[in-house]
Amino acid sequence: MGTHVVSTDEKTGMQALERLHETKPVRPGLVERVEFEYIRHGTLSLIANFDVATGKVICPSIGPTRTEADFAAHIDKTVESDPGATWIFVVDQLDTHRSASLVRLVARRCGLEEALGVKGKQGILKSKKTRRKFLEDPSHRIRFVYTPRHCSWLNQVEIWFSILARRLLKRSSFTSIDDLRSRVFQFVEYFHRMLAKPFRGTYTGRPLQA
User: Fold this and answer.
1) What whole-number distance in Å separates Cα of residue 152 and Cα of residue 207?
2) What is the pLDDT of residues 59-87, one digit of tens each?
3) For 77-107, what is the HEC assignment?
4) Residue 111 and residue 107: Cα distance in Å, rounded?
5) Which of 136, 157, 124 shows the shortest CA–CA distance to 87?
6) CA 101: distance to chain centroid?
């Protein structure tokens, strides 16, 4: 037990593209040549948590959708991996990150017995604003920290998504969505063994010079 600070978001529309011909590898005087024609096998959505202290991706979820229920189920699974710990989730302001399902989940997991109200009418569940206030309450063992609007790039998991895209998704051929799912999980394990480390911010905040 302890405190986990994780950066959480969804990567939607991951395409299982099977290239019609094999990629030609690098040869002396020739760059890698990737087949441009492909077969579409469908798409998947990934919900991932980047642990900012260890640089590892924990409890990833992959499925065909990224609904309110999907995101709440992902958070529940993540908390269950260390149920007695404190969890701080850094997320953007997507509606599914301020949902009634999340409020109910946090209330249940934290043993809060206060009345939650009715969505769209009254109480904590009334609106996105009231739900957010509850979800980011620092007195809760499970809480959410929201990045400013249009600044989701501040969320560190977005950096990891770009690594996933460059090293796996853009360069590979997948025979099915099951193949895509399996290889994403394999990449997560490879990342843990070979690459995982905390990201270090290098932005100094200096204004651009004219």
Assistant:
1) 21
2) 999 999 999 999 999 999 999 999 999 99
3) HHHHCCCCCEEEEEECCCHHHHCHHHHHHHH
4) 6
5) 136
6) 18
Whether the CA torsion 80, 71, 52, 162 is positive or negative: it is: positive
Q: Please choose, from the candidates 15, 55, 56, 60, the residue with its C-alpha nearest in 3D space to the C-alpha of residue 38.
A: 15
- How far apart (Å, rounded) are the C-alpha atoms in residues 162 and 165? 5
Express each pLDDT in 90-112 by its tens digit: 999 999 999 999 999 999 999 99
Q: What is the dihedral of CA 71, 182, 160, 41, to 10 degrees?
A: -80
Interatomic CA distance for residues 46 and 183, integer angstroms = 12
Apex CA 204: angle with CA 199 and CA 205, to 5°?
A: 120
Q: What angle do CA 152, 162, 52 make, to 5 degrees?
A: 65
pLDDT in tens, 183-206: 999 999 999 999 999 987 665 555
Q: Is residue 29 packed enough to be buried (19+ CB in 10 Å), middle (13-18) or exposed (0-12)?
A: exposed
Both structure tokens of 79: 């908390």
Describe the strand order of the beta sheet including 86-91 as a list of residue ranges.
57-63, 38-51, 3-19, 86-91, 142-146
List of domains in the chain: 3-194 (3.30.420.10)
pTM: 0.87
Q: Please give the DSSP secondary-structure letter assigned to residue 121.
A: T
